[in-house]
Write a structure and sequence with these properties.
The chain contains eight helices and twelve strands. It has about 230 residues and is of the alpha/beta class. The strands form three sheets. A five-stranded parallel beta sheet has the order 2-1-3-4-5, sandwiched between helices. Strands 6-7-8-9 form a four-stranded antiparallel beta sheet, with helices on one face. The protein has a three-stranded antiparallel beta sheet with strand order 10-12-11. Bound molecules: calcium ion.
């Protein structure tokens, strides 16, 4: 099935480059040149992935991202300008799955698009249910429940908790997690992992400051604590 990618970017030459390369890889592409139209297309066309610029007319990329997240867990890759370190973290806070720095290489971009799309494709490895504590991860449905109530996670948060839950008690460095969960050679910084862990704790833990499940091994990394392991 042909996957649909939405580009939200006000610089038409960048749209053209992205569109050309995505279409060459077999994706269907739609685009918007401002934030409002981007949000509208994101909510009405159900794209499989969104490439979202930060600086946009009418509504900036953070707002667009936040508004999409109220309705959808679609993978969102933010496009940020070089040196906008704070912007990257802010984008992740708003629920983006990933970011890529402009100017970007086409190969790197395509690798990230593929890696992020891969996570929404059902496969055999996902065909299971993982339980821990009061939680139940329904892999095929990309859903996690706490005492039977669905917890609203972004795709990346879901992938992270699933990855940890599949390997309870095993400690992973932040670099490990970037490679395994983000799924490609990652040149960004490990704060990406910290931000995602923090957001996950806020959604899952009764007291995010005193986590019972997603534990920090000081100086090493993170692991999922499960009592019966
Ligand atoms: Ca822009």
């Amino acid at each position: 099935m042909q996957r649909l990618v939405l580009i939200v970017e006000d610089e038409k030459p960048i749209v053209d480059i992205l569109k050309y390369n995505l279409e060459r890889e077999g994706y269907k592409v739609i685009f918007a040149l401002d934030g409002e139209e981007g949000l509208n297309l994101a909510l009405t066309k159900a794209p499989d992935l969104i490439l979202l610029d930060v600086m946009l007319p009418r509504m900036d990329g953070y707002d667009v991202c936040r508004r999409i997240r109220e309705k959808s867990n679609v993978p969102i890759l933010m496009l940020t300008a070089r040196g906008e370190e704070l912007d990257k973290v802010l984008g992740l806070e708003m629920g983006a799955d990933d970011y890529i720095t402009k100017p970007f290489g086409v190969r790197e971009l395509m690798a990230r698009v593929k890696a992020n799309l891969r996570r929404t494709e059902p496969n055999v490895e996902n065909a299971s249910v993982i339980r821990f504590g009061e939680f139940c991860i329904l892999c095929e449905r990309y859903e996690i429940t706490k005492d039977g109530q669905t917890v609203d996670l972004t795709l990346r948060e879901f992938e992270l908790i699933k990855f940890l839950a599949q390997r309870p008690g095993k400690i992973f460095t932040r670099e490990n997690l970037l490679e395994e969960v983000w799924g490609y050679e990652y040149y960004g910084d490990v704060r990406t992992v910290d931000v995602t862990v923090r957001r996950l704790r806020e959604k899952i833990e009764d007291d995010p400051a005193e986590p019972k499940y997603i534990m920090t091994k000081r100086g090493v990394g993170y692991y999922l604590k499960v009592d019966n392991v």
